[in-house]
Amino acid sequence: MIHAQHISYSVGGRTLLQPQTVRVRAGELVALAGANGAGKSTLLKLLSRDLTPSSGTIQLNRQDLSRYSARDLAKCRAVLSQHHTLTFPFSVYELVMMGRYPHFDHQPTGQDLAVVDHVLEQTGLAQMTHRSVLSLSGGEQQRVFLAKVMAQLIDYHELMHPDSDILTPKFLLLDEPTTGLDLYYQHALLQQARQLTRQGYGVITILHDLNLIMQYADQVLLLHQGQSLAFGTPAAALTPSSIRQAFGLDVQIIDQPTLDYPIVIPATRQPHYQALTA
Amino acid sequence: MPANVTAERPVQAPPRVQTPPAAKGRWLTGGLAIGLLITMICSVGIGALAIPVADVVAILLKQIGLETGPVDAQQETILLVIRLPRILLGVLVGAVLSMAGASIQGLFRNPLADPGLIGISSGASLMAVVMIVLQVKLFTGLSALSGLYALSLAAFAGAVGTTLLVYFLSRQGGRTIVSTMLLVGIAVNVLCEACRGLLVYMADDAQLRAISFWSLGSLGGATREVLQVAGPFLLAPLLLMPRLSRSLNAFTLGESQAGHLGVNVGRLKGSVILLTTLGVGVAVAVSGMIGFVGLVVPHLIRQMAGADNRLVLPASGLLGAIILTLADLVARTLVAPAELPIGIITGLAGAPVFLYILLKNRSQTHA
Q1: Which pLDDT score is estimated for B228?
Q2: Highest mean pLDDT range out of B29-43, B48-62, B139-153?
Q3: Considering only B4-8, B128-132, B196-200, which range has the smallest mean pLDDT?
Q4: pLDDT value at position A257?
Q5: Is A89 exposed, middle or buried (CB count within 10 Å of its CB: 0-12, 13-18, 19+)?
Q6: B104 near B118, Cβ under 8 Å?
Q7: pLDDT over 70 for what percent of chain A?
Q8: Chain B partners of A191 at a C-beta cutoff of 8 Å?
Q9: Which residues of chain A are within 8 Å of residue B21 when distances are taken between CB atoms?
Q10: How confident is the model at residue B139, as a pLDDT?
């Protein structure tokens, strides 16, 4: 479990994140939502140890996050970044293999190769393993990077026993993972994430699409100007009033009898919304 | 639950046609290693006194205690005292320049980076010019102390000094900022160049000639003593840098992503800079400025075998060694008994190759 207690973050006299307490259990998919600049990425960076909180503590599996060695941490939490800067022509296979780097020293073992093969097939990349990542489209690149973080966390043991729970909880941190993906792969990605939670992974993801949150998240944390507006199940936390407060947009939430989750659609055009589109 | 999307767009499992990337790499490095051996044995025999390959092999085997027949004493002396040290030095310098180039390109995440970016070459060059122009007045004591090697020592000190300056100026709050390092490197390079220009302006004709020859590089100073002193410093980076290749691969994804993969990025940056400075600093000190090898050789390897540094680093070292050995062979035989500066050869051969790669890539991207 990731347990962040009263963490805040300020830089240069500006507070980007007010004290928050966040708890993510193994087996849960937690979404972070909010307007641009609300503090979602800051929170994710604190949880991934890219940033050190100005106050408060973060524990991962009951151990202080700061006490992990880089390599031990890499074995139990992976991060899918939002931006990828690649200037060298690595092949799809080489890039996904990078996910195994925390697990081997010089040459990948047979187990590492098996995990990479498994992940490549899971993400629909098995056909293009030899292509240079630079030659792929944005969405295809995003899938390659997703495959890399999956390869980083999955154990050979899990391949052999796909139905049993994982031994120690592991956490996947995703920063807007659906960016650039087509409709099919947006859902494929989140279903893969859901599948991982069923095996005992914890997933924390920034998502902009409230309907995806409604459909896939167990919990959602709605942020506004560095503060928590609402935290709970999507149906409870995402209400017309909390969404209006967070995004400045009126929405309607529709219950569809054929679906087991509600649908969010913009209700009316706000004056400033009109100004943007006019 | 939503409809299972994987059912909508089936991803058929392909036949496993996975050639292990390691196999391709073994072929390339193995081929280059054999190529280097052949290049060395052939070029050791070529020169004012030609030594047939069979005799070269016989002389070399005699050194490790395997007598295969009588060897010519004159041939033996020339080979062991003159040719072999020079060729070994060329191999080490070529390998270091290329491997350091590949490492620095990984560090800057830019295939066009060059060890010169962090001030190694300009610092070495400035100090060499200082020695040539001012030594009569200021450094006679030092020159007497370290004999013929004063110029090399000064160049090495200059390389290390400027790199450390760039390194420490680009540290903020205990971290080295790579983009800042690039800018600081540019500023320090300009400063060194200006100081060097001032000294060149003050120099007399003989000194000017010495400066331009030094700037074009040469392996003519290779002796057994030079090899004994410089060899370990060139060999150490060659053995240690490939150990960083996995981390350098991860580093090309960006510092934070490398950190997520468990790489200690601070230590990686420090190691690359330390090993590069040591290797390239010593290489410049013993052979002057040999341009372009560090840029072109890693490019060629990436064209052939992709970007995996676990392959690019050792293969670049081997190819760099081959190229510099061949370039030196041309340098010392083309206008014999005189010698051409080796920098002219590497430049003349390297620039067209580089242009070819650029144009080929351009036609690929616009095809």
Answers
A1: 87
A2: B29-43
A3: B4-8
A4: 86
A5: middle
A6: yes
A7: 96
A8: 2, 4-6
A9: 91, 93-94, 97
A10: 52
Q: How many residues does chain B have?
A: 367
Residue B10 has pLDDT above 70, yes or no: no
Closest CA–CA distance from residue A107 to any residue of chain B (Å): 9
Task: Provide residues of B within 8 Å CB-CB of chain A.
Answer: 1-2, 4-6, 8-9, 11, 13-14, 16, 18, 20-22, 106, 109-111, 246, 249-250, 252-254, 256-257, 259-264, 302, 306-308
Considering only CB atoms, which chain B residues are within 8 Å of A49?
259
For residue B253, give the nearest of A50, A86, A107 by CB distance. Answer: A86
- Read off the pLDDT of residues B191-227 as tens digits, 9 standing for 90 and up: 999 999 999 998 888 888 888 888 888 888 888 888 8
ipTM score assigned to the predicted complex: 0.86
Q: Which residues of B touch A73 (CB under 8 A)?
A: 262
Query: DSSP characters for chain A?
Result: -EEEEEEEEEETTEEEEEEEEEEE-TT-EEEEEESTTSSHHHHHHHHTTSS--SEEEEEETTEEGGGS-HHHHHHHEEEE-S-----S--BHHHHHHHTTGGG-SSS--HHHHHHHHHHHHHTT-GGGTTSBGGGS-HHHHHHHHHHHHHHHH--HHHHH-TTSPPSS--EEEEESTTTT--HHHHHHHHHHHHHHHHTT-EEEEE---HHHHHHH-SEEEEEETTEEEEEE-HHHH--HHHHHHHHS--EEEE--TTSSS-EEEE-S--HHHHHHH-
Give the amino acid at A90: F
CB contact under 8 A, A90 and B249: yes
CA distances from B272 to B112, B279, B297 (A): 16, 11, 18
- What residue in B sits closest to A89 (Cα-Cα)? B307
What are the chain B neighbours of A97 within 8 Å (beta carbons)?
21
Which residue from A79, A93, A132 is facing B260, i.e. has the nearest CB?
Answer: A79
B179 pLDDT tier (thresholds 50, 70, 90): confident
Q: Nearest by CB to A85, which of B254, B260, B262?
A: B254
Q: Could you give the CA distance from residue A181 to residue B49 in angstroms, rounded to a whole number?
A: 68
Report helix, strand or coil for B164: helix
Kindly determine whether residue B264 and residue A87, on different chains, have CB atoms separated by under 8 Å: no
Is residue A157 left, alpha or beta, with left meaning phi > 0 and alpha meaning psi from -120 to 50? alpha
Q: What is the DSSP string of B177-220?
A: -HHHHHHHHHHHHHHHHHHHHHHHHH--HHHHHHHHHHHH--ST
Q: Does B302 contact A88 at a Cβ distance shorter than 8 Å?
A: yes
At residue B72, φ and ψ (nearest 5 deg) are -70, 125
B190 CB burial (10 A radius; 0-12, 13-18, 19+): exposed
Lowest-confidence segment of A1-10, A166-175, B344-353 by average pLDDT: B344-353
Relative to beta strand A14-24, strand A29-34 is unpaired
Say yes or no to pLDDT of A115 above 60: yes
Name the amino acid, one letter, at A81.
S
**Chain A residue nearest residue B19, CA to CA:** A130
Q: Do A74 and B9 touch (CB under 8 A)?
A: no
Give the pTM: 0.85
Contacts of B262 in chain A (CB under 8 A): 69-75, 101-102
